[in-house]
Amino acid sequence: MKKWLFVLAALTAIILLGQLLQEQKLEITSKHGEVDHNKKIELVAIEADQVHRGKLLLINAQSQLSAEGIAEDIVEFARDQAAGAGFALENDTIMLSDEVLQALQKMLAAARQDGLEGFMLTSGYRSMEQQAMLYEQQGSDYALPAGYSEHNSGLAVDISSIAMKMEVAPEGAWLRDHAADYGFILRYPPNKQHITGIQYEPWHFRYVGLPHSLIMQEHGWVLEEYLQYLAENPNLSVGTKDGHFTIDYYSYSSDLLIKLPSDASYTISGDNVGGVIVTSWVEGEL
């Protein structure tokens, strides 16, 4: 009898361990400057404006968006297109980075598969001129000056529920759980106002791309905290359920040469503060 109890306990432990490993999305290790001698790299000089371009830009009261930081692939999406994709627009059209729009449509399609069909997009890209007008009309209690709003970048979108407030809507709960899987973060979560300077906005989602969104969700970080972490841990290896990423952070200087993998895909983004982040992965792993 004792033998069977021991076997049962062992099997239970194995099952629980398996469930824990399945639930854990990420495996993050710091490389601490380790060199992979088998990795093919090329050294590339970086222009100063790269610090202010990319998907990981910090845009807040201390870090103004420059013209270089506006996404170059801004597209217009109409109400009939949105209806065909299964969600609503508050206005006749919305503008966003095309990369962001593609990820957004994929995310909302997944939500529909889970039975949620009440999403409405209320705001996307705003030009500097539109932002200045909005700030003049609404004041600092309800709007930000031109260049200090994430909406000026084309990387942010406000998503609402057609039925109720997002903080209590099932659409809001689904996005809080799943947006990171598609490269989005809830930019202004509760209890982080002392860091972001912005009160809780359950509708405001920012695209940062993978695996950065997953890392932030895993640790409960906002963008300010994540960028600080990268500056302090500049060489990361990140394993996700979809593949393996390498993240390298560089502090910008005029003579900076960054290492780019010649046998892998990569993106380069500035942080809008003084750093450059290279994210690389091998095609076929994702």
Please explain how this structure is put together.
It comes from Paenibacillus montaniterrae. Residues 95-209 form the D-alanyl-D-alanine carboxypeptidase-like core domain. This is D-Ala-D-Ala carboxypeptidase VanY. Pfam families: VanY (PF02557). InterPro entries: DD-CPase-like, VanY-like_core_dom, VanY/YodJ_core_dom, Zn_M74/Hedgehog-like. The termini are far apart. The chain folds into 2 domains: 25-56 and 209-286, 2-Layer Sandwich (Phosphorylase Kinase, domain 1), CATH 3.30.200.180; 69-207, Muramoyl-pentapeptide Carboxypeptidase, domain 2 (2-Layer Sandwich), CATH 3.30.1380. The strands form 4 sheets. The chain has a 5-stranded antiparallel sheet, with no helix packed on it. A 5-stranded mixed sheet has the order 4-6-7-9-8. Helix content is 30%, strand content 25%. With 286 residues, the chain is α+β, with helices and mostly antiparallel strands. The chain is globular. It has 8 helices and 14 strands. A hairpin with a 2-residue loop joins β10 (235-240) and β11.
Task: List unreliable stretches of 5+ residues.
Answer: 1-24
Summing up helix and strand content along with how strands pair, one would put the structural category as alpha+beta
User: Major beta sheet, specifics?
Assistant: 5 strands, antiparallel
CATH-derived architecture of the largest domain: 2-Layer Sandwich
Number of helices: 8
What general form does the structure show? globular
The first-level CATH class of the largest domain is given as Alpha Beta
